[in-house]
Every structure is written in structure tokens, then in C-alpha cells.
Amino acid sequence: MNKSAKIIAIDPARPEQAFSRCRQIIAAGGVIIYPTDTFYGLGADPGNKAAVQRLFSLKGRKGDQPILLLIADASAVDQWAAEIPARAKSLMNRFWPGPLTLVFKARSGIIPDLTANTGTIGLRVPGNPLTRDLLQYLGCALTGTSANLSGRPEPRSAEEAAGIADLVDAILDGGPSAGDKPSTVVDVSSGGVRVIREGAIPARHVVA
């Protein structure tokens, strides 16, 4: 198989051409690899159960591991979170767009696979403008787990992600990722602030 055939180059002057192909794939229940501000991610429609299950299968991810979502802007939080505590709003204002994933109490009706039956959902507005433009064009959130098999290194470019090209429908090439660490993950579901994973943003900056 020619893995390069699945790589969609982005024309900076007309990115909607590449975005349109991605929208067709996502609408059909497909899975793409796309650039974020941390690593390249595996994108599927989080409202499509079959697509989410396919994502778990191709990644080799266990069912007890939740999947975070990337959203275009903070206004989309209400679609996924049952409530937005005051501390969460403060962190959103300080660190979004950027590499901070906030874990909220999930709204009812969300596909259980995304939450790993925890009742919570992780959300992030990515710092990469290209990623936000893609999300705006798609008109929906995307799953944001890294584009690698579980336990393997996270890819920082389309070329590195091409190792699993035969498992996905397309790779959106946005150039090398600027990040070298995953997002910092913070649980705000109970109204407080609990750091689950320290990543690109130091934990001391979040809890201060």
C-alpha cells in the first residue's frame, strides 16, 4: 500500500480543500489523523458510536481509558459538560486555547466509551490555530487521543503518524507539531482542581 496516498497536504491559502475531504470522512464515520498543538491526534466523530469503537480497536486502547475531545472554542463546553464550575471557568480563561485538558462532569447521553464509564469527559481547546480552524469547519468536536498504538511514541509529524496509515482513512499534514509534551490534565468535575497528569503546563501554574 502507498501510505503517502492517504496524506492530505494543506494549501495555506485554501485550507478548506483539505478540510472538506476530512469532513466527508468524519461524516461517514471515518477516522483521520490530524495535527494539534501537542502531538498528532486520531480524530473521529464523538457522537458516532461505531466510529468511537473503531478508534478504540485500531489504537488497541483499553475500555477503562477515557478519550478526551478537542473543541473549537469554549462555547462548545456546554454540549459536553453537565456543569462548569467557577474554578473551571478561571482555568479556561487563563489557558485556553492551549495544552490544558479539563475533565468535567459529563452530560447525560454521551457515548460511555468516551468517558470509560466514569461520568466525566475531558475537553480542550487546542492552541494550534489550524486545528481550531479544522474544528470550526467540521462543525463538531473530534476525539483527541494521540495517533499511535497504545504504548508507542506519540507522533509529531504526518510522516511519523504514517506508521498506522493503513488503519485510518486519511492523514491531514499540518507540518511538524510544535509541542513535545502532552497536555496537562486537570479534574474540575467536583468544583475543585486536581491535577491528573502534568504535561506541557506545569502543575504549579494550574493550582496557583
Count, helices: 7
Can you tell me the number of structural domains?
1
Query: Quick one: CATH superfamily?
Result: DHBP synthase
Number of strands: 10
User: How far is the first residue's CA from the last residue's CA?
Assistant: 51 Å
Q: What is the SS-derived class?
A: alpha/beta
Characterise the protein shown here.
- The protein is of the alpha/beta class and 208 residues long.
- It has a single domain (3-207), classed as DHBP synthase (Alpha-Beta Complex), CATH 3.90.870.
- The protein is built from seven helices and ten strands.
- The protein is globular, with a radius of gyration of 16 Å.
- The model has no long low-confidence stretch (mean pLDDT 94).
Topology:
Elements: E1 7-9, H1 16-27, E2 32-34, E3 41-43, H2 49-59, E4 69-70, H3 86-95, E5 100-105, H4 112-115, E6 120-124, H5 129-138, E7 142-143, H6 158-161, E8 170-173, E9 184-187, E10 194-197, H7 203-207
Parallel strand pairs: 1-8, 2-8, 4-6, 5-9
Antiparallel strand pairs: 2-3, 4-7, 5-6, 9-10
